Amino acid sequence: MTRLRGAAASAALASIAGRHRALRELRPEGAAAHSLSSAVVVPPLREAIIGGQLPPGTRLSEVELARELGVSRTPVREALAQLERDGLVTIVARAGAFVRTVTVDDLAEIYETRMALETFAVQLVAQRLTPVGRTRLEEVLAEMRERVAHDDHVGYTAELDRFYAIIMELAGNATLRQIHETVLVPVRRLRRIAMSHENRMAESLVHAEEIAGAMLAGDGAGAAAAMREQLVTACQAAKDVLLHAPHACPPP
Questions:
Q1: Which of 38, 124, 170, 249 is most deeply packed, by most CB within 10 A?
Q2: Domain ranges, ordered by start, for the chain
Q3: Is the pTM of the predicted complex or chain greater than 0.85?
């Protein structure tokens, strides 16, 4: 069976429609369908999926989304295809599009890949770090501490994303950065939920400070070891969320 859209999901889509109307006023007349899909349809849908307003297994009807967003089906279809490439949506022939259900096996593969990418990236940063890069790392860590102090798990997750993005940028390898972004997307919803659990934010911050401290000291091996420890803990936290979440029906 497929999870049906409930009141919360409908409210989320109503919010999406509101965002579309606001953005539409800024859109020049005659904007192409692909710009509609990338600028208007994809961002709010991505946010609703990662935020959990559209739970795993939810069917995403092209007709309903087009009506609620005030666009034709073409940009909706293109947006769903993009979200499938991002790992957030599953498209099944003759059945339609569904919010992707991440499995325990998926988690294992994702975190194995993250382990390879991120341990390599921090070693590159330790070798290539500039004064500007040092400042950026110190600034994002300060923001992360602030979010923990205010028990703001949503804000902390956003800053953690920025921490990883800065690492990938400072590594100076565009291909590595692009692959990492694709790998990270499917687990963002689970990470946000995990950060709301007791002590998880503080634990994550300790790991981030250890990783950053090693990079700032030019210790690539130490940074890789700290990142490895962080990812083992993060994988287990994501797995705990997955195993204790309400059952999400897979697409047919």
A1: 170
A2: 1-99, 104-244
A3: no
For 41, 114, 123, 180, 194, the CA distances from 119, given in Å and listed in that order, are 34, 8, 7, 12, 22
CB environment 122-131: b (16+ within 10 A), e (fewer) = bbbbbeebee
Identify the architecture of domain 1-99 in CATH.
Answer: Orthogonal Bundle (1.10)
Mean pLDDT per 10-residue segment, the chain (252 residues)? 54 60 52 59 85 87 84 88 91 91 92 97 98 98 97 93 97 96 88 86 97 98 98 93 66 56
94: buried, middle or exposed (CB in 10 Å: 19+, 13-18, 0-12)? Answer: exposed
Q: Which amino acid is at 238?
A: A
Residue with tokens 């991002």: 86
Q: Is the separation of the CB atoms in 171 and 210 below 8 Å?
A: no
